[in-house]
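ok so I'm stuck.
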Amino acid sequence: MKGNRNTPDNRLTRMRRVALGVTLATILAACGAPPGDGTADSRIPNPTTTSTVPTTVPPPETISEGELGVIVPPDDGGNYPPDLVVTCGYGQFPISALADIRPLEEADPGGVAAAIEPFLSSEEGQYWPQEGWQVLHLTDREVLLVVKEEGSLTFMSASNDGTGWTWSGSGGGGEECPLEFMFPEDLNAVTWMLDPDGAPLTTDTTELEVILNERPCVDGREIGDRLLPPEIVMTETQVFMAFAAERPPGDAFTCPGNPDTPYVVELPEPLGDRDLVEGVQIGVDLADYVD
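replied:
not stuck anymore, here's the structure
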């Protein structure tokens, strides 16, 4: 090993920087340049040549374990499928939507602005951003709006039952919004971190000592038997890991904070010089794409 290359912070930080660059290229290759007057959108840098951004390259040789089916590793060109559905806590959309975020005044199919106005002018709505809304994703039935105000992202949605658009919800408020893969509706995402008191990583490491924490509110319950085996995807250069737990019975839970759970991950083969990657996140932050 070289220096502190295998520390979790360095590895994850470096992976996020790399993933951000390759995903930008993927989006542009799949969707073309953003609409406009022919000038490239300054938010999304153009690739040097389109030939360097393959969209049909087969995925690299991988070793996969676990049945969650959450992780979609990039192909050997570092690209994600443009129709990959992602989320960052509110709503969901294909990753290709990042290449075509437009102001509501420009992208409104007719009736969306009028549909959200009653909420914005209500007693509760007055505390929400009143202008600057942009269309993140639009279908015949749903629209997801986003706005960045004072560095924070806020979302709003509207739905169409065939008779017209109706406001359907609002949420958000954080400065960062890292994109993540979608989990099955009956499962809760579980985050992991390397145990700071665990054994140091080496190229021969086959067991990773991690600390798990269930992300959604569950009344502070232990994960226990609800924890599912992790999904592990090992490529030539990276190890993606994702954990999930079955949701406990009930419809409403308090949020006193969930307890940490120690866990030992058994890798299919030695770690080698691979980077450890949080398998839930793809390494791209929506905040970087919203003016």
